[in-house]
Write a structure and sequence with these properties.
Blueprint: H1 2-6, H2 10-44, H3 54-69, H4 72-78, H5 80-87, H6 92-117, H7 121-129, H8 134-167, H9 175-185, H10 190-218
Helix pairs in contact: 2-3, 2-6, 2-8, 2-9, 3-6, 5-6, 6-8, 7-8, 8-10, 9-10
Amino acid sequence: MAQWLTNVDWLEIGRACGDTLVMVGVSLFFVVLLGLPLGIALFLTGKRQLLEQPLVYAVLSFVVNLLRSVPFVILLIVMIPVTVVLVGTSLGVPGAIPPLVVGGAPLFARLVEAALREVDRGIVEATQAMGATVPQIVFGALLPEALPGILAGVTVTSITLVSYAAMSGVIGGGGLGDLAIRFGYQRFQTDVMVITVALLVVLVQLLQMLGDRLVLRFSRR
């Protein structure tokens, strides 16, 4: 067992862990930045909502469903030209971030929409009766009430991004997925594969625990 552990390049594994954390962290930031307003727009333009616009909702919904229907491995390959234009390369950590954002933002937008739909309609009607504008209703009533659900959505999205980040190793995206493919699969180093999987499991568990704590902290019930 000791010899098995000493054969592992822990420096390389540490570097891969750092790359995975950077990929997930940076992509999650942009996913929330893009997915939150998209989810709000989906909610507001939906049926019987404040800014009901069937055509706008249909277009937004189609785009979101289209992006969500593409398997992430295929999305990685399809986006290579766009990724090169955006960040100058399709390899390594920078090359993995644009596909991660495009793959994660539609998922988060749907989760935001679902969280907003769970808000008691009476709260919206009460703020409307007081003469509040749509922005005031959104930022003063909807988002605060839906915050626990949105935080739960952030948690689910971050865990999904961990999985996506691992898959990006297929095209040399860096991180633990790339390490598992290059050493665990191509060089038949089972020890590296086992450690990589274990680290990904630990990372997912930590994210879930942190997300659960945040949801509990901001829940008003």
